[in-house]
Design goal:
heterodimer; A: 18 helices; B: mainly alpha; two-stranded antiparallel ribbon
């Protein structure tokens, strides 16, 4: 059997789809092209899941070509247990978003083209095994998101778009400095120029200068933490979400934030044991994680805008990723990876609900809503489902992730976990309070004529809800491969003698 | 095929009924009600058959388990304890569902109603037959979800939406403690095995957990200067979960408000599918409590105090359902009190407490359904607007009288004549007396006796105010249809004779629970860990002690008779805004003000607003400051450079160049 360059196709097809979409003039045609080219990566992701060997942490489906040999730049892509679930997540979320946005009227060709370009960038980030390539894709995701916010955004879109761009861009630049420092240091050390990620991570262990190692670590960490985002580097996120169109918010929260977490697992954790003071780094990470969980939850409680509340809840949920990663117990790390996957699915439901409310009722200010359930039963069911998943109801995917992170992190970081547990009640509180004020109670007559969500919206949200339920009952298909890689990451700790 | 092979259907059938009714119920007869009714009926039959089988062959405990993910499993465990609970829950839930056919017949949302009650039942059945603590927790949370949905069933009513949220959040506080308990337990087990968990063994299964009790009890941590065993911490955290779910002080505040749902939902919550889960949790993990004496004492005190505390509020409420709500809290307190007596009577405490749980389920479901029948007909819940209802609703009146007698515990000591509540509540009070005799501590006993007096007072006050005398307002009304009165009559029969039929058998049946299902549990050894002697021969109490609960019961009846029937005392002088005791009770000790207004709103919300300020002004302020500074620098640079893109590229190249020089230097220095 001739092996297909399946990973490359998953990057290339959306990119080609983006170009085709951009030049198609008819709305109906545009969205069908967009949907088809976003379904191709889904097929690819499912194919890889089915043919993936979960028992090894090694890279699979690897493709490698020399790109700039003199500088050691490769075109090298592949997936392992860290990457594949996120590839699957992106491949699920993008078509769901396209279906959800089926009725988009404002320049649909550009709109869908940007979504597809974004997908290509994200796929590239999750599969690149060369740091140079990784950085290119990393930057590539910024541009479509910038335009999605600045063209289809709300009233303060210009401010939000530029804030998003500059903030995350500064973080990217710091990360780039880290990458270059690592590249040159490894070059100087071994005499071989290479951007190969596994190679550089290995070389990192042998760098003699502790200050250099710590600086590289912190520079990369900064880049990833801003992306996640972790408190206190999070203020770009609520603004971006509030102004972004629904599809933009969905992709931002479900996929782009996951790039930060992905960086933690792919780059930071393998480096961590070899930094000057691993214990201190672990404490910093754990502190940031717990701070994000609690601070995000408290801030969500204070919000008056439904969408902003969901944005802060994202910050809170991403805190579990940091905490589980910092604990460095195999199942806490895989729990943190699963949290990324699970939160990606759940947050789609939440942002889609906010989008529908904004679209139909004309406002997202919680105090101006009320009693929507009477006119929007379908939305209410799906939204309540999403809220329940988000507050960690057992049987749904969020619980599996959070339970694993809390239980297994407790083995190494008991104090931090006990603090994080306090957040659970607040989390339930802001979700239910928002639900009570916006959907239940007396219908606010000022809202005028209301109707339920369209079939396209129902289908896309329904599929996501089913997936949240499926992975909550049967997490193994993605969790097993995560655990395999998590075990390998944790074994490095022993190797470093920490 | 043996009946055990169908055990998995017990929770599955109602769960499937939920799916079918939820999606297709609207198009079916009566909102698809017949599907949950059929499913629960089947579950009930399977449960009863398994129970009968267990009665005949106590060693044939059902235990099935499959791998779930990571180190977790899903499994079914039906031992005598689970079997009696399963039978009771399916049976009571079935009757309530049938009753709801009539009660909910005019409600446009009845498809949703029946779907949610089916899920509610399924979740509770899941709690009961879980073979491991995590699965129990999962179903436990689903119970919470269903209660949220059903209390807020009439979501367009702001008070219902608020009550639903309050119920979920209050029980959530308990749930977090429960979850913390599981986490602490797991870390303890992890340490016992030195980080190498045995292959193929699911450590969170009850049987595995119980095996490790001695090791867990030997592990100590120091908290605030006290040395506490790991086992005590775990059991107290579990009990924290039970306090939330079973409405024990101080997390009972959600239960009176939970009346906002349909009355049938109240009946489900109070009798079958929710509040008993907490008591069941303690009973299920009772061997662990046996090894942690401090925890058992806490259970006893919290339970006893709750029994008394709730009954004081029961005597001043005017809403018929609220009286019953406080009654439930109080009765659950008795059950916890009974469990807490494990310190002296050992495993028998489970039997005593569960016996009361089952009896209570019958008479409390009956009380609620009777109240529902009255409300359905009269159109108000305020007892001050009723009076004389007994004349127009004779069946409801008689069945409610039976339920009240059972609640007040009427019977003749020393004979086998008595209502079901008589046998079980008096058994609990007798155990507290044994405890007092044994330890010299009479406080739990006093809690029990005083609460018994108040119980009888409030329930007969309810009866007299509602059913006797002349109508105080001009309500219409008629007896309810037979679809409602038949379930009432069946429940009344159980409330009357279940105690007589089962009393001795029941204890014995439950006592074998832990002996048969967990062969490694050694009660005597646990008692040693807990450092107490087990009293094996109850029933030698003086005659006075046997009669006292009945005497206070009659006294309560007489008090209510004199005040509310004969009107010997003019209530209007007592019931006034100026009487501080009345005010305190009527305002429920101002718990609402403390819990909702102080803790939830003022403190938590205040903190979150401070956080919002920090976020906007300080963190974002710093960021904006940096960006303003950068823009100012950028403005200067722009005078030199031509455009943004070029300056960016230049900066990158310059930066990289600098970096290379820096690295060269570092390398050369080394």
């Amino acid at each position: 059997m001739i092996s297909m360059p399946i990973v490359s196709l998953m990057i290339l097809v959306p990119l080609i789809g983006a170009v085709l979409t951009l030049f198609s003039k008819i709305k109906e045609q545009t969205r069908i092209i967009a949907l088809v080219s976003s379904l191709a990566p889904l097929v690819g992701a499912l194919y890889m899941i089915m043919n993936f060997d979960s028992s090894t942490p090694a890279m699979q489906f690897v493709e490698s070509f020399d790109w700039v040999p003199s500088l050691g730049i490769l075109y090298k892509v592949g997936v392992d247990g860290i990457a594949l679930p996120l590839v699957l997540l992106a491949a699920i979320v993008v078509p769901a978003t396209i279906i959800y946005s089926w009725g988009e009227d404002k320049q649909p060709n550009q709109f869908f083209a940007l979504i597809l370009a974004l997908e290509a960038g994200v796929m590239g980030v999750f599969t690149s095994l060369d740091f140079f390539l990784f950085y290119i894709f990393w930057e590539l995701t910024l541009i479509p998101m910038y335009f999605l916010i600045s063209i289809w955004g709300g009233p303060r879109k210009d401010y939000a778009a530029i804030k998003f761009f500059i903030y995350t861009h500064v973080a990217s630049l710091v990360m780039l400095l880290g990458i270059f420092a690592l590249y040159f240091a490894a070059w100087a050390q071994s005499g071989i120029p290479s951007f190969d990620i596994p190679y550089l991570l290995e070389q990192f262990q042998f760098l003699e200068n502790t200050v250099l190692r710590d600086s590289i670590f912190l520079a990369l960490l900064f880049g990833f933490l801003v992306k996640m985002p972790a408190v206190p580097f999070h203020t770009w996120l609520p603004d971006a979400h509030v102004e972004a169109p629904t599809a933009g918010s969905v992709l931002l929260a479900a996929v782009l934030l996951k790039m930060g977490g992905y960086g933690l697992f792919r780059v930071m954790l393998p480096m961590l044991p070899f930094t000057g003071s691993p214990k201190l780094m672990i404490s910093i990470l754990a502190f940031i994680g717990v701070l994000s969980i609690l601070y995000g939850a408290m801030l969500a409680l204070a919000q008056t805008d439904l969408k902003k509340m969901v944005a802060y809840s994202s910050i809170s949920h991403m805190g579990y990723v940091t905490l589980g990663a910092a604990a460095l117990v195999p199942l806490s790390v895989s729990g943190a990876m699963f949290q990324q996957f699970s939160h990606g699915l759940i947050t789609c439901l939440l942002f889609m609900s906010c989008g529908a409310i904004q679209h139909i009722a004309g406002t997202r200010v919680i105090a101006d809503l009320g009693g929507l359930a009477q006119k929007m039963p379908k939305l209410t069911v799906l939204m309540l489902f999403g809220f329940m998943a988000s507050l960690g109801l057992p049987g749904l995917s969020g619980f599996v992730a959070e339970f694993m992170v809390l239980t297994f992190s407790y083995l190494t970081l008991p104090g931090y976990v006990l603090l994080a547990l306090l957040g659970i009640v607040v989390t339930a509180g802001y979700h239910l309070w928002a639900m009570q004020r916006s959907m239940f109670g007396v219908l606010n007559e000022k809202l005028g004529h209301l109707h339920d969500i369209t079939n396209y919206e129902t289908i896309s949200m329904g599929i996501l809800a089913l997936l949240v339920l499926y992975f909550g009952l049967n997490p193994s298909p993605v969790l097993d491969m995560m655990t395999t890689n998590a075990e390998q990451i944790v074994s490095l700790m022993a190797l470093a003698g920490v | 095929m043996a009946i055990e092979d169908f055990a998995f259907l017990i929770p599955l059938l109602p769960a499937l009924a939920f799916v079918v009714t939820f999606f297709f119920g609207k198009k079916m007869y009566s909102g698809g009600a017949l599907i949950p009714i059929g499913a629960i009926a089947l579950s009930c039959i399977i449960s009863i058959l398994i129970t009968i089988n267990l009665l005949q062959n106590p060693e044939e405990v059902v235990h099935q388990s499959i791998h779930w993910f990571a180190i977790l499993n899903l499994g079914i465990l039906i031992d005598p304890l689970a079997a009696v609970m399963l039978s009771m829950v399916t049976f009571v839930s079935l009757l309530i569902h049938i009753y709801a056919l009539g009660y909910m017949s005019h409600d446009p949302g009845k498809a949703r109603y029946f779907a949610e009650t089916a899920l509610f039942t399924a979740a509770m059945l899941g709690v009961i037959l879980s073979d491991n603590i995590l699965q129990l927790f999962i179903c436990w949370e689903l119970v919470g979800l269903c209660s949220y949905l059903l209390i807020g069933f009439w979501y367009q009513k702001p008070s219902a939406a608020a009550a639903a949220k309050k119920a979920f959040l209050t029980t959530r506080v308990g749930d977090v403690m429960f979850l913390t308990g599981i986490i602490v337990l797991f870390s303890g087990i992890f340490k016992i095995y030195n980080g190498n968990l045995p292959e193929g063994v699911y450590v969170l299964q009850f049987s595995e957990m119980f095996n490790l009790i001695p090791q867990l009890s030997a592990m100590h941590t120091t908290i605030l200067g006290f040395e506490v065993s790991q086992l005590t911490i775990i059991t107290l955290l579990f009990f924290g979960g039970a306090v939330g779910k079973s409405g024990q002080f101080p997390l009972h505040v959600w239960l009176p408000d939970a009346m906002e749902g349909p009355t049938t939902v109240s009946a489900l919550i109070h009798a079958a599918t929710m509040v008993t889960a907490g008591v069941y949790l303690v009973a299920r993990t009772f061997p662990m409590f046996m090894g942690a004496p401090d925890a058992l004492i806490v259970v006893a005190y919290v339970g006893g105090f709750t029994a008394l505390f709730a009954s004081t509020m029961g005597i001043v409420m005017n809403d018929i359902k609220r009286v019953l709500a406080f009654s439930t809290i109080s009765q659950l307190g008795y059950m916890m009190l009974g469990l807490g007596m494990g310190a002296v009577v050992g495993m028998e405490a489970v039997g005593v407490s569960m016996f009361h749980l089952i009896n209570h389920a019958f008479f409390k479901a009956l009380l609620f359904l009777c109240a529902g029948s009255v409300i359905h007909s009269v159109g108000t819940q305020d007892m001050r607007q009723m009076g004389g209802v007994g004349k127009i609703m004779p069946i409801t009146f008689i069945t409610m009288l039976v339920a009240s007698l059972a609640l007040a515990g009427f019977g003749i000591p020393g004979t086998s004549i008595g209502t079901s509540g008589f046998f079980s509540k008096d058994a609990i009070i007798e155990t507290t007396y044994l405890f007092a005799e044994h330890t010299g501590n009479y406080i739990p006993y006093i809690f029990g006796i005083v609460a018994a007096l108040l119980t009888s007072t409030y329930i007969f006050r309810l009866l007299f105010m509602t059913f006797t005398g002349k109508p105080r307002t001009n309500y219409g009304g008629h007896e309810s249809p037979s679809v409602m009165t038949v379930p009432l009559s069946i429940l009344a029969v159980f409330a009357l004779i279940f105690g007589v039929l089962t009393q001795t058998k029941f204890y014995h049946f439950l006592e074998v629970t832990f002996e048969n299902s967990f062969v490694h549990v050694n009660i005597e050894h646990l008692a040693e860990l807990g450092n107490y002697d087990l009293v094996h021969n109850p029933g030698h109490e003086p005659l006075f002690i046997l009669w006292l609960p009945v005497i206070v019961g009659v006294a309560g009846l007489v008090i209510s008779y004199l005040i509310y029937y004969k009107k010997v005392v003019d209530m209007s002088t007592i019931v006034s805004r100026n009487n501080p005791v009345y005010k305190l009770l009527y305002n429920r000790y101002y718990q609402h003000q403390i819990f909702i207004e102080l803790i939830a709103l003022k403190i938590t919300y205040g903190l979150s607003l401070i956080g919002e300020f920090i976020d906007r002004k300080i963190i974002d302020g710093i960021i904006d400051g940096i960006s303003d500074g950068t823009i100012a620098i950028g403005e200067t640079i722009r005078k030199v450079q031509t455009g943004v893109v070029q300056s960016y590229a230049t900066a990158v190249i310059a930066g990289v160049g600098l970096l290379i020089i820096l690295l060269k230097l570092i390398v050369e220095v080394q």
